[in-house]
Amino acid sequence: MIPERDNKVGKSEPQKEKYGSFALFDIEHFLRRILKNWYWFVFMLCIGYVISWIYSKYYAQNIYASNLSLSVSNNTSSYFTPTQSINFIWGQNGNQDGVYLKKMLLSRSHNEFLVKELDLFVNYSTKGVIKSTYIDKTDSPIFMQVDKKHLQQINYPVTLIPKGKDMYEVVLPEEGQSTNLYSYESEGFQSINEYAKPANKIIRVNEWYNSPNLRFRLVKNTETPKIKVNNIIVTLNSVNQSVNDIVSTIAVEFDKEIGTIMIINKKGFNLNSTVNFLNKSVTELQKKRLADKNIVNKNTDVYLQANIDNIRKKLDSSAAVLNYLKTSEKLYNIKDRDEKSLDKIKELEGKKADIISKISSLNNIKTTLQTQDFDKMISTNAAGFEDGFFSATVTELKALYTKKREMATIYKANSEPMKEINRLIDEARSGSSGTLRNYYTRYYDEINKIDRQVADANSDLNSYPEKERRYLDAERGYNMIEATYNSLLSRQNEAQMKVATNQSDITVIDPAKNLGQGAIGPNVKAIKFGIISGLLLLPLLFILIGEVLDNKMRNIKELLSATKIPLLGVIGNNSNENMLTVLEQPKSSVSEAFRGIRASIRFLMENGKEEGKGKTILITSSIGGEGKTYISINLASVIGLSDKKTILLGMDLRKPKIFGDFKIDNKYGISNYLTGEVDIEQIINKTKIPNLDVATSGPIPPNPSELLMSERNIKFIEELKEKYDFIIIDSPPVGLVADSYELMKYSDANIYVVRHEYTEKYMLKMITEKYHQGEIDHLGLIYNDYNTKQGYGYGYGYGYGYGYGYFDEDKNYKEPLLIKIRNKVQTIFNKK
Q1: What transmembrane ranges does the database entry give (predicted)?
Q2: DSSP letters of 641-704?
């Protein structure tokens, strides 16, 4: 059904807007464009496959991973190893001790120790024809021992080539030597004077290599490497760079079922390197953990030994006094001694001496907290108690002080972060001080109680003479000092026993091993897919951008939907050398299309209008080049051949064209007639078609618009209506000048030419609006230069004659590949 003008009254603004509005993106044309450019996708697919193959073969560095599992137990308490009691005190869930160990494993201090201990700042690799491969230190036949007192150039690859008999050639890069060298002692950079590139040199194993930017020697590997390398490339890194690289490749997780089991994962370019590092890291962590646990017990041992030495002196002095009284005063055999009271007093004073010793230990702990000298902290066992809350609080306080020192380098003293850390410190300090006050109170209450009991017992001894009472006092003093001495010895033995029997609470369950694990990365398949997909996207992207930026008219369905203007016909591509297709190729599909248009035009004209007079058909377009003149010539030709007297007027006075194809002299034309220079008979020319005359444009006038709109031109057209059945006007493009709009007022039918893949969509907006606003009547569209081989965009039967022997073009027709495949498939499935 051919669309007609929407004549509804009172159309809404949105409805008006939709006229002349085309889709920004044509998915159907986009897909056809992709199929048309299939060879680019095949080319990019091949290129992508080659690039991905080269990458995976020669450039991809395999990444390996090894893991180690260990368990964390809490069989001892220490200020420096947080206990499970923290979880209860602070309401935390999970393994707090494991979290502490995780931080240790990822800490800079721990990994810096490993870097320096294992010389992990020295990196080894080997290079084949193209690809370089990282190797472990143990895979190298020799090690590089760096002189740490000498300045070294880092990130500077040194190639060592075996020369036999423990000889190696040192080959330095052709360029890249630097005067900014690294010191492994100060871990900083220093500048030196300019120097010439050191020459390559052959050195023996254990021989020092000296240059301005390097000093090292080669040490032979005592174990035979499992792989053979033709060269060793050694690169030095700074300590900081090595630590950062290591920390970034370590991951620590906890077992989901047993929270005290940790799984440590290490990634690297070499499997042996990851295995060796993990095992060494955990071994050093076990040592550190045990040392941390023993610090307090060792401090306690030293503290108790100092007290024992002091008490020993007092005990010796007290014994001397007691012996003197025994020998000089003969008081060792006092008659009627109240042994029961004396034993009770001895027991009470022994308890008192023990409590006083514990208070002394409390004083030491309190002083240590106040001075923040945590490394000298003694065990709470020396003060006679074990308190998880106090241990946790001290651990928290120690961590907060450490954090405060770190923050002090970043924040000002009165900043909010510093105020917050000070608040937390005050809370922790208050908690520890409160715990100590509780024990002070308890001990002093016990001493007061003992003193009252001793006073009661002393009342029974008041009956003794003064001399004997003096001896008893000396004996009681000796017993009290002896009890203190024995108490200190007992606690010292306990501390020493802990040091001797302490074990690390880290137990390795599964050590890291090289079991021939495959590489975990890179994901070569994903990279291949990414490379190929990326290259395939390039032509797709170019086509997409071209499609979005391309605003040309390609879709007949969209044209009809957007304009709602009747479509008179579709003209295929003109394969003729000139414009006279109907005359020279009468059996072509294009000629047949013009005949169809000739039949459709009558639907645009009003029947009965000025009967007996000729009909005027005006042909225009948006801009030049859309085939307006071509349509005019052939439409006039096909009407003339239908035995209708027809005249073709070249009224595009600015760009005359018609005369060339008809081989007519353009010396005199319509412009001459409108200016009064010649008569009408002088501008009308005969053609090969008896019923077709042509009036050319003539010379280009200075005022074409005024001539076309003149009263003389209107009379000229009216006069021609009396002589001809059809007047075909080739008018100027409406997108450039407004002449055609004025001429349309006097025409019986108006044809607007749209050229396939040439006419811009926005150019159709003006003619569409004028048509639906009633400013233009009797308007129809012709779709020109349509490529029928595309079979695209319209389904009304135009362009489907090819291949059936109906038109002249069929003799040169070649069936498209896709059509061949389709027909072959249909043939197979239609077989019975």
Answers
A1: 38-56
A2: TTT--EEEEE--TTS--HHHHHT---SS-HHHHHTTSS-HHHHEEE-SSTTEEEE---SPPS-H
Half-sphere exposure of 479 (CA within 13 A, CB side): 17
- Please tell me the distance from the alpha carbon of residue 157 to that of residue 153, in angstroms, as a whole number: 9
Closest CA to 506 of 207, 236, 174, 281: 281
Return the amino acid letter for 697: S
Q: Which residues of 758-778 are buried (b: 16+ CB within 10 A; e: fewer)?
A: bbebebbbebbbebbeeebeb
In whole angstroms, give the CA distance from residue 326 to residue 791. Answer: 134
| Whole-angstrom distance, CA of residue 651 vs CA of residue 791 | 35
pTM higher than 0.85: no
pLDDT per residue over 676-722, tens digit each? 999 999 999 998 889 999 999 889 898 888 998 899 999 999 999 99
**Structure-block tokens of residue 515:** 């079991």
On the question of pLDDT at 661 being above 70, the answer is yes
Nearest-10 crossing angle of helices 524-549, 38-54: 150
* Sign of the torsion formed by the C-alpha atoms of 538, 544, 547 and 550: negative
Tokens of 638: 């096909």
**Full 3-state SS string of 694-743:** EECCCCCCCCHHHHHCCHHHHHHHHHHHHHCCEEEEECCCCCCCCHHHHH
Q: Could you tell me the two tokens for 164? A: 């036999």
Smallest CA-to-CA distance from 601 within 767, 774, 769, 781 is with: 781
Q: Which residues of 290-312 are buried (b: 16+ CB within 10 A; e: fewer)?
A: beebbbbbbbbbebbeebbeebe
Half-sphere exposure of 50 (CA within 13 A, CB side): 6
Pairing of strands 122-127, 201-204: unpaired
User: Which residue is it, tokens 């304009």?
Assistant: 563
* Partners of 648 in beta bridges: 694, 728
Q: CA Rg, the chain, in Å?
A: 53
Task: Return the structure tokens found at 630.
Answer: 């071509």
Name residue 750's beta-bridge partners: 618, 779
- List, for residues 106-146, the tens digit of each pLDDT value: 888 889 989 998 899 999 999 887 778 888 888 899 999 99
